Amino acid sequence: MNEQNYTVSELMADESFQAYVFGWNTTAIHHWQTLLEQNPELKSRADEAQKLLTSFSIKSHTLERKTYQADLMGLKKALQQNLLPSNKQMHLEVKQSSQNFPWQWAASILLVVGIGFGLFRFYQNREEQVETLWYKTISVPAGQKSTFKLPDGSKVVLNSQSTLKIQENFEQNRNLELEGEAFFEVEKDPAHPFVVKSGKLTTTALGTSFNVKAYPEDAELEVALVTGKVKVSKDRPAGQRESVILNPGQGVQMQTAQEKLKTFTFNPQQSLAWKEGTIYLKEARMGEIVQTLERWYGVQIDVHGQETNDRHFSGEFKGQSLENVLKLLSYSRNFTYTISGKQVEITFNTTK
Questions:
Q1: So where are the chain's domains?
Q2: Which of 62, 88, 120, 258 has the most neighbouring CB atoms within 10 Å?
């Protein structure tokens, strides 16, 4: 079949397209980049297929290509047999009697579609008894973001390279665990507090909106309150906790090395710029810049040489390509760069 006429399902099942999406093969990457540039209608379908494929949340974050492809075989088979529904509210149903059902691996996978928080439904036999499995983990790969709703109606915007874990019986026990960064708009439910655990910080809210930034590799954890009121607690030995109550416009930081809570005021337009597609850097050193760009664009950046002066950089980039951002930075930081697919090389000029 002509690739230009592929549907979303056919794109997802195509091994060459999978190789393009996950960066497994440079030939496939070049082929699909060229094809999609020449076919805007196909690109629209490809974007949707790519979002579905890359929204897989798998427990192991170090899967090799063969392992990932093996997991995708079940998806491919179902797609080719037209077993999947076309609607966006999806559920996964597994036969109660099956012990080795080929789709049981999908219990660790969540597909996030648009702003719908759903599950993946697999129809094998409508007359068989089934049970619905609610997935517990949502992950967003580097270079992407995802917006969805939790079962209680709360809205979540999950930043790139972030993972959200949801406890069972969420509507009765609204407890979450976050690794990375997310913005929450919480549905009011006084009887069931909304609790986000991020490292050694715990944020408790009733009905409010707030941002949590807690990447494990960062030197600090941060909670910023936009509306309502939250309590942020730090775990201490012997079950003790240090707590801070935040009002709108206030935030709290904790240095992972010192583990001391420090409150601050913030500008929501700056702190939440990532939600609007804007990279905001404030007095950032090169290490922070590299880390931010890797998360934002889903690339690996290798830096060669050192800056003659370790200067700070402040600036905003809204809707800019990686090429444009690096070009501007190279003028102010005196380096050259090359971009090859998902690999970026930065070399500092040692002579002025």
A1: 158-266, 277-348
A2: 120
Structure token pair of residue 305: 């040489």
What percent of the chain is modeled with pLDDT above 90?
A: 27
DSSP string, 154-166: -EEEEPTTEEEEE
Class of domain 158-266: mainly beta
Kindly tell me the sign of the dihedral angle through the C-alpha atoms of 130, 54, 65, 137.
negative
CB distance 311 to 344 below 8 Å: no
Q: 206-217 pLDDT, tens per residue?
A: 778 999 999 988
pTM of the shown model: 0.58
Helix (DSSP H) and strand (DSSP E) numbers for the chain: 8, 20
d(CA 148, CA 196) in angstroms, rounded, equals 16
Tokens encoding 38: 């020449």
What is the C-alpha separation between 346 and 229, in angstroms, rounded? 43
Instruction: Pinpoint the alpha helices (H) of the chain.
Output: 8-13, 15-22, 26-38, 40-54, 65-80, 268-271, 286-297, 322-333
* CA–CA separation, 142 and 161 (whole Å): 5
CA dihedral 31, 32, 33, 36 (to 10 degrees): 130
pLDDT at residue 55 in the model:
55
| Length of the chain in terms of residues written | 352
Taking the C-alpha atoms of residue 299 and residue 133, their distance in angstroms, rounded to an integer, is 34
The burial class, CB within 10 Å (0-12 / 13-18 / 19+), for 88 is: exposed
Q: Which residue carries 């904790």 as its tokens?
A: 254
196 contacts 176 by C-beta, under 8 angstroms: yes
Q: Report whether CATH 3.55.50.30 matches the domain 277-348.
A: yes
Within 8 A by CB and 6+ apart from 88, the residues are 113, 114, 116, 118
Q: Which of 145, 4, 14, 33 is nearest to 72 (CA)?
A: 14
- Per-residue pLDDT for 89 more than 70? no
Tokens of 112: 């996030």
